[in-house]
Amino acid sequence: MNEKPIKVDAATDRTVSELAYFLRTTKKAVVAIAVAEYSEQRDRYLAAATTSGGGGDSELGRQDDGGGRETPDDHDTGTGTGTGTARAAARPTVLDLAPLQRLALRRNELVRAFAEHGAGGIRLLDAEPAAPGEAELVLLAETDIAEGGQAAWDLSRVASRLLGVRAEVISTTMLQLFAKPGLRRALERSRPL
């Protein structure tokens, strides 16, 4: 994969550089996180616009041409069908994807988030389809032994928030310590992320 630079103005480059310095990360990571946050906010907005019936959407999708008439802006589909709810519903969002597709799309973000919590060696457990009330995704991860059982709970919350599905994380570290046969079975039924 050939990566190409993104062209930005000097002020944006300076802001990204400063954020990278203060957050002790790379400029690339800052941009990736910003894009992910933007995507998440946009998904929430589109989901809300779809369920709310389009109230207040006309200001976003239309502009006044100076003569009192509204004209479609650059984001409008140009169909002239009205509220914009149809436009929002026609565009797929991350929330429309199946859990495994969301995981594939946000894999790198998940790996970074887990690393920030001291976890690694992430694997996807091949599980039966989730019953109501059960996790839609089950992940295995090596956790910091000092965190104990709390690490798996925290990582489950991180994965659920990032992917927008109910996710469960099982600590392979805890399985290694307390349930070696269970670890062996889990590793056989899983694959690297």
Characteristic key phrases:
alpha+beta, Beta Polymerase, domain 2, four-stranded mixed sheet, 2 domains, two-stranded antiparallel sheet, single chain, 193 residues, 9 helices, globular
Structure, explained:
The chain has 193 residues and is α+β, with helices and mostly antiparallel strands. It folds into two domains: 10-92, no CATH class; 99-192, Beta Polymerase, domain 2. Helix content is 50%, strand content 13%. A four-stranded mixed sheet has the order 5-4-3-6. A two-stranded antiparallel sheet has the order 1-2. The model is unreliable at 54-82 (pLDDT under 50). Residues 59-77 have a biased composition (Basic and acidic residues).
Determine the CATH superfamily of the largest domain: Beta Polymerase, domain 2
**Structural classification:** alpha+beta
Characterize the largest beta sheet: strand count, sense, and whether it forms a barrel. Answer: 4 strands, mixed
CATH architecture of the largest domain, by name, is 2-Layer Sandwich
- How many β strands by DSSP? 6
Number of helices: 9
Rg over CA atoms, rounded to whole Å, is: 22 Å
**Basic shape:** globular
CATH top-level class of the largest domain: Alpha Beta
